[in-house]
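To assess whether the prediction recovers the assembly geometry, we first specified each molecular entity separately, as shown.
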Amino acid sequence: MRRHYIIVGILVIVVSILIYVGLDSAGLMPVEASAQAIDVDWMWNLEVIAMSFLFALIVVPLVYSLIVFRRRKGDTTDAEHMEGNTRLEVTWTIVPLFLVVVYAYLGAINLASTQRADPEAMVVRVTGLQWDWSFEYLPVNGVTVVSKELHLPVDKQVLLRMTSNDVIHSFWVPEFRLKQDLVPGRITQLRITPILEGNYKVRCAELCGTSHAFMEKPVIVESQEEFDAWFDSALDEAITASQTPEGRGQALVAANGCGACHSINGAPGIGPTWFALIGRTERLTDGSTVVVDEEYVHESIKAPQAKIVAGFENQLMPTYGFTEEQIADIIAYIKTLR
Amino acid sequence: MRNISPVWKGLLLLVVAGAIGYGIGLGLDALISGSINTSGPVGAAFALLFAVTAFFFGVYGYRGITRGLVYQVIGTLVGALLITGLRALMGLDNIFGVYFFSEPAWVLGGVVGAVSFLFGVGVVHDWMQWVRGIDTPEHHADEPGWQKYFDVSLDHKVIGIQYTITALVLIAIGGTFAMIFRTELAASQLQFLTTTFKLFNQTGPQIYNSLMSLHGIIMIISILLGISGIMNYAVPFLVGAQDMAFPRLNAFAYWVSVPASVLLLMSLVLGGFDTGWTGYPPLSARAPVGMQMFFLGVFTAGWSSILGALNVIATVVRMRTKGMTAMRLPILVWASVATSIIALTATQLIGLSFQLVMFQRLLGMPFFDAAKGGNPVLFQHLFWFYSHPAVYVFVLPGLGVISELLPVFVRKPLFGYRWVAMSSLGIALVGFTVWAHHMFTSGMNEYLRVPFMYSTLLVAVPTGVKFFSWVATLWGGKIETPTPMLFVLGAIIVFLMGGLTGPPNAAIALDLHLHDTYWVVGHFHDTIFGGFVFPFFAAIYYWFPKATGRRMNEFWGKVHFWMMTPSFFVLTLGMMVIGLRGMRRRIVDYDPALGFDLIQLIMTIGGYLIALSVLIFFINLIYSIKHGEKAEGNLWNSRSPEWQVPSPMPVHNYDVPFEVVGEPYDYGLKDSKYIEFTPNGKKHIEFETEPEVQPHRH
Amino acid sequence: MGTMVHTHDNKSMLSQGILIFIYLAILTGLEFFVAVTFDSVPLLIVVALVKAALVIYYYMHVYKLSLESEVDDASYDYKAATNRLGLWLFLISDTFVFAGLMVMRINLLGLSRPELNQFLGLGVTAVLLISSFFMNRGETLMRNGDRQGFLNNTAITFVLGLGFLLGVVFVEWRLAIHEGLTPSSSTAGAAFFMMTGMHAFHVFTGLILLAIVWINGRRGHYDVKNYPVEAAAVYWHFVDVVWIFFYPALYLIGTAVH
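The predicted structure of the complete assembly is given in tokenized form:
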């Protein structure tokens, strides 16, 4: 029997190492594009060590038993009677218990290091909506830059203050590792320090309805200079746009993600297209027809369920709390789409 | 018609009645909306109800399950018309809805339909007699042959098999759904579930979401029914009882699951639901009517689980034979008790959380509506308080089957019996304290996260005890590997993979990366296959001779195993790899730039091979019922009491009662006995002699 | 009655019932007093726990679960003991529904509560408590073989229970809606209607059970096989225990919000 123990012991060690090296060299994680990713991958590495060892610890003796202790042909006797061994049982309860405490402790430390806050962090407000993202930078002289792309300067912590307009979404850039839900009615936070310039994508990770799979937007990590240049031009655009009703309307439409359902170029979507909307004749679900005018659009924004265009019965548009002026701005913008 | 086999008759009627129902549905829809919508939900809803009912009518005639389904259809219509009438009287604008009936009408229809089913099938008949002060015989005699499985039976073995068959049917349905969306996922971009695709008022991505959500819940219900099948079939004869403690409640618990399954299928045609089986509000508060059918279906099936669990606990506490002390119980009984403790209590919380969303939708009660002060995260706490322990409900009986079968095929006692028995209870109890590890990203209070990491990792300790005991049992044995043992070994390795991929999810920061990705999908498919699917197949191959007196074909059983296991590894390892690299859960499509196309294609092929292997299993199962090799004795040379009497098992289990005189798993100990038949001993339940019992017809 | 072990004779059981009722009444008064004066949440919790413990022990006879029943497992007593275990398991399961509702209430409302008519609340609470007293009397009398006493007391219980149900649904709910507290008005409204609604549903099912045992009792059942009476009584007291917690949670704790 001693011979078996020694062979299995050696095999367990060899197989653990092989599995670990295999998993490690497979490069299972995406690139580390944030400081937090380094922390997360450190924990991942510890887990891979534990997984490799424990897998070998169970599977090696199991497979070994299947080969060595298999029933020989013609043998009909039972095996040697062996009920248990209390010392062994205590050992394999206490040792895992100890390991669990150690791993949980390491996990807590690891969590703390991913949450380290930089008081200088740049704040970006993130809004999730079905099925779009909107990024709002802190206002400069009363003008706010609202972007459909998340531009971030490299090596500077960003504090994302996030909320949702409708259902729960989740902010996830795999290269940054960390993930945080966006919950209607509350503000959740996520701190990320990008360390690698490049183009990534934020993807919604919490099922949010029909087009959940397509709720993604670019995340661009760039040098401080490039970021400043982008921000300045975006700010200029925002200032120009805020002067006209169409511009304000366009900004509102972008900020509220209307484009996720209503195309502006005539393409079919979840909701009716806005291309050449005013003056169009639409058939409604109750069979009547309506010529779309400003009043109809106004009503459809205020009470989306009142008159639904046929073919869109199953798509529930949420109600938005726009003011009268905002609705006028949006209609002014829609009018420009011809 | 008379010479046609019942199955063909059923299928023929299924097609005919489906077509008639479809026509009626289309006509009604056209009356209300003024246009014919061939891919609409109303025609499909009627077609579904008519077709299912007609199938059973063809197979079995107008009694038992058929009458239940007819009652359910009528009840659904009555309930729906009642609300529709009330709405008309109240002068509301929208008496009818997109799905023909309005949402409240469908909800009441669903409730009345489910209750009507129970009256129709006759499972409440005896209770109604008692209410009227009339006694009924302790047991009804069942019809001989296969017919008894289509009607109410009070025999735990019949009910156990009914559960198992229903579970297998649901596995087939849920698996088919999986095949549909796995095919769509084989390559990036939308192939056939496109935005222009229309079915039941849903576009391709919406159908994808509905199928994916239904795959989840149908598999969960099938697991609950499957474990009930194992527990109902095995627990009474393992403890030496003639039946469960409450035979009528037992039948009720089973039959409740049939209307529940119909409701779940109705949800697909009534607009589906795009929330996943988790049904998080606010999304579930705005999904189509199918959402309500889903809630009702889960709620109804939940009662099956609760009442079944109650029965198991009462049976084990009250019905054990003489000498069956706690530390001499078969290990599967311990596992069943541990499972039942969770199912009895925690299940109420998923029912409650779904009810709250139902009422939010019906009456505008703002439990989870942030605009009115509600809290969406509260739902997740209530939901996961059941739905995490639920995974222990799913796997504990399976782990019990592993521990129960290992000693038989190793010819050696289970190593550390007491520790294994207590580890089941340990997992169940620790399981109550870990739910919020599903919510590390949810925005819940941050101070809750670390304690939940500790409690979650703690589950590894009792689970580890089981693994070490299994390996120690194998060590130094004389191992045989017939099909049931192959599935036991497969279960150990697959469940090990599931177990080991769990702790990374508990490490909070790492979970913030892994949460809601295919890593998690791979992880839980491993735990469920290892903890339920493999042991379930092992149990079927193992106890099939006990139920039928014949054994399943060994060769095709081994083909089943050797085809399913590697394919399953390909599928789940693939899931985990793409999950780590950025594949989110529950998406109809993925960015081609991620480069997942090849691996997804391989996974899809793996999925098809699993389906093929399960098809082989089904054919083997059905064929072996009549044509399998005879096996009426102690086929596996087991010490367990049920194998000491001939197969198939006699109606009231043990004609001669037995006493427990030794340890259950003392293989290899000379002259040791587990049980001894005591011809003069007391039977547990006095049965009326058979001829006096009135047949169960009313 | 077979060999069921009695720890108390029936006469002392009846006087014990009265004593427990007096305790419950005093504690309810104390609750109300605490709420209108210095509003101490811990004290209210302690009082509710004591009240529940009194009902569970003296009215629901939880100790019967651990009584040794007859060895003859085909006997009525053995089966009744099995049924008793089944019922208690069901009640444990049901408790999780109400506990879940309580968690919902605490999470959504915290230390605030819906604005409700205090005297109406105290009134329906008193009615339910008194009904429990008569239920206990009825059950004890039936075991004593006094059929008429059982019928009378059960009838009183039924009427009081119906009074409670109508008081909540037709008076309290109407009043609340009239005052602007509706199911959809706020989380306070949602919590109030959901909790009282779920409880009222249980009261309703309890009334059905009472009606069944009353009718069958009139037909002459339950001389020997009287477990159904005990079951209906235990269920009725359970509904009372739930209200022992819901009453302070909805009417007494914290400050009222509209």
